[in-house]
Amino acid sequence: MIRLLRKIVGLLVFAGIIFGGLEISLRTLPELIPLTLLKRFQKDLRVDIAQQRSLWNESLMWELKRDDGGPPLKLFKPHTEFTYNFGKNEKGVTYMDDQGFCNPSRNPYDLSKIDVIAIGDSFTWCVVLNPEATWASQIGEISGLSVYNLGRGGIGPYDYLQILKHFGLPKKPDYVVMNIYEGNDLRDSIRYQDHIKAAQQGRVLYKSASDRGTQDIDIDSLLDYPVLRNSYSLNFTLAVIDKAYGILKNAVSRLLGGDAPEIIDFHYRFRFPDKTVEFNLQNADESEVLYAKKLKSGEVDFVAIEDALTQFVELANAHGFKPVVAYSPSAYTSYADYVEFDDPVLNTLMPWFSQAQRQFLSETADKLGYTFVDLAPAMQAAGHALREKEMLYHPINVHFTMKGNRIVAETLARVISSQPND
Fold it and tell me: Could you tell me where the beta strands, DSSP code E, fall in 317-402?
């Protein structure tokens, strides 16, 4: 019995040393916590650590009241600042303006009228860019028109419309540009309608417009006790267990022929004549591939996004602005002649996905009455001319560089300038 007690005491002392050392290390250097694990921390502690690291977090947000029954839509508070750090040169501090959007001082909101309003997701917003480098701001520089950027990362077309109603329509714009991103706007439209259907059945599908679901175990409930909820080391340990559990559960499910998320390899590269450039180094945006496969198989269709476009045109007719729908291609579409995917299936699937969306938007423009601007040809021409000398996208976060934004701005400015101003 005494020997057993000694072993137990010894194990407890050893565990205390391990957890104590981990606690001190994580509190001293919270940046050591990977973001994939931090997302699984208890909510209040997660926000506290994110604040220490100047990361995007709930304390920087406020909730916009919706009129369409969609999931909670969180926007940035005025004068918010936070850091982006994707590694290498893809890092920087992002500043929000006095309305909580990404605009430089040359594009103020406090005008009685603004000529051009831009709405969209992170391909409209500023990711590792200064506000004046976005395509929206550059349209104003090129055309001389007043412009305001209402983009916000991580949301979809129905959310764009809510932001437009609240912030854009009061400025009596002549033009509103809705930027549809090739990678995820179809997905986000479908998720919105799934949320609406679930709500009608008394279920909650998504807690917010940008919710993707991160936990396999309900850690927030598990860490409801004060002793646990404030511990960096215990949160870290449980986050590791949760992630490992999810991986193991899916592996077993696949082995047994059950329903488990598909393993997607979305790495690719551009083989230019003089250099090969690796892209999507973090293997992000796997859902882009998933929804391409769903569209190809007929599991999903364009109905959800067409409903959002219909609402957009209805707002245009009611408020007297010209609706412009721009299509921002993914990097692999802009460099279509040079791309090579790790997964050879994607060499045919992703070009098909791009063409299907562009054809749908073109045909729907004729039906609904909006101006469609396919940005792919201009981006492809620039990609051919510049190749690796000046990239249009960042290799890790795969968003537009300043040059990519410039090509978009020049293309859209030409279209807007050619529109009759009734």
Answer: 322-328, 339-341, 371-374
